[in-house]
Design a protein that fits this description.
By secondary structure, the chain is of the alpha/beta class. Helix content is 39%, strand content 14%. Helix 2 crosses helix 6 and helix 4 crosses helix 7.
């Protein structure tokens, strides 16, 4: 709307307690933590070969994965991956065991990742997602993986780089401090 001004991050808030089934899954991750995967509300299904590549990559990781996924079950799904129709995204991003957010780069998800200081592997699909992720990548908090290059190897490479290079988390923590900064009253 022409008279509306976007206020980034207004939906961000401290994390609330997770539902028991999600909390149990997250706690079972041990020291490796959890990866959160969501391609937003518009992408409900991926081609079978693409989702099988994603699932195969996740299966090779020591982290547990919570994947917001609708559609057919990937044939290469590992025991470390939980498929769910809906996720309390802000609450999962705010959980201390969340290590990485694999996301499409929508504005709200990016703002929540910044608020909670969680690094991102971005897979932009459409709209402003690539631009959002590019801005985050330039600030050292994300790595972009284009949809045309998504396969098992590229996912493993990007995810392992972001998880093993502490600068991504440090940069997101710095952005989180800036995002949460409030003037003293």
């Amino acid at each position: 709307m022409p008279n509306a001004v976007y206020i980034g991050g207004f939906q961000c808030s401290p994390a609330k307690a997770l539902p028991p089934h999600l909390e149990d899954f997250v706690q079972s991750s041990g020291e490796h933590g959890v990866i959160l995967m969501s391609l937003g509300t518009f992408v409900n299904e991926l081609p079978q070969d693409l989702q099988d590549g994603i699932a195969a990559a996740f299966a090779k990781l020591p982290q547990k994965v919570i994947w917001k996924h609708k559609g057919s079950r990937p044939t290469t799904l590992g025991n470390n991956t939980l498929l769910v129709d809906w996720i309390p995204q802000n609450d999962l991003l705010g959980h201390p065991k969340t290590r990485l957010f694999m996301a499409h780069g929508g504005t709200n998800g990016i703002q929540e990742a910044i608020y909670h200081g969680v690094p991102v592997v971005g897979v932009p699909v459409f709209f402003d997602q690539y631009d959002n992720l590019l801005r985050l990548e330039e600030r050292g908090g994300a790595k972009i993986l284009t949809l045309s290059k998504v396969d098992e190897d590229s996912i493993l490479t990007h995810v392992q780089e972001v998880l093993s290079n502490q600068s991504y988390r440090e940069n997101m923590q710095r952005l989180s401090r800036l995002h949460r900064d409030q003037p003293s009253l």
